[in-house]
Automatic annotation (TrEMBL), chain A:
Coiled coil spans: none
Main location, first listed in the record: mitochondrion
UniProt cross-references to SUPFAM superfamilies, sorted A to Z: ACP-like (SSF47336)
Protein name as annotated: Acyl carrier protein
From TrEMBL, chain B:
Single GO biological process annotation from the record: response to oxidative stress
Alphabetic keyword roster: Electron transport, Membrane, Mitochondrion, Mitochondrion inner membrane, Respiratory chain, Transport
Organism for this UniProt entry: Trapa incisa
Protein name: Complex 1 LYR protein domain-containing protein
Record flagged with keyword Transport: yes
Keyword Transmembrane: no
Pfam families xref list: Complex1_LYR
Family: Belongs to the complex I LYR family.
Domain Complex 1 LYR protein per the UniProt entry, residue ranges: 49-84
Localization: Mitochondrion inner membrane
Superkingdom of this protein's organism: Eukaryota
GO cellular component: mitochondrial inner membrane; respiratory chain complex I
Amino acid sequence: MAMRAAILRHIRIPVRSYALEFKPRELNLSGGSLMRFMSSHDEHLTKEEVVERVLSVVKSFPKVDPSAVTTDVHFQKDLGLDSLDNVEIVMALEEEFKLEIPDLEADKIDSTGLAIEYIYNHPMAG
Amino acid sequence: MAFTLRSVKVPPNSASLEEARSRVFGFFKAACRSIPNIMQIYNLDDVVTTAQLRSAITSEFRKNSHVTNPKVIDMLLFKGMEELGNITEHAKQRHHIIGQYVVGRQGLVQDLGTKDKGMSDFLKSFYRSNYF
């Protein structure tokens, strides 16, 4: 017990009290630049990376014409796919980004724009 | 009794075509999500990719896309779930998976063609199948 306390004392990280010196409105830095030293959750994907990977998944779908794929193309109306292909594309995106999209959200993903938006806003997108 | 991993999620009757449709999509997603597991069980990593298995599953679904009776759809879903359960609990073997889902119909039977030289087209189609 005492040894545990001794060890903890050695590896304790000094608490920075910089927050007390700033006025509340200045804390809200844009871009979420919190200083969380031991968090692994801050490596979010950039928007360009999300866009590029989503488009590459859609383009590699065998029924899709790669030149018709832009950042806001509707799967069923513009690319001529059917609802089963839509679900398959959503599953391919789930696999690419290691997510699990619940049914309610997955039904709404009808176009590349919505897919990009959903994945970008998902905290667990990898 | 047939599946240990997957409980029967299909109650006897879907109320409407819409309900059957949503069940079909739910089952499709469950099948796609179990693909990595299947590839790991049967060591399919150097034979086929995940995307190819997914298209194989899609084409199996598409074979029955013309069905409109919800009870028939329920029955097909039941059979599909049983099949998926069998595959995921390793009740099948690698050659089953490869033969049924990876290789198409033409790949299984190698047609040498040397003994067909003098044969008429009628006989060739007759030997291939009943319906032509």
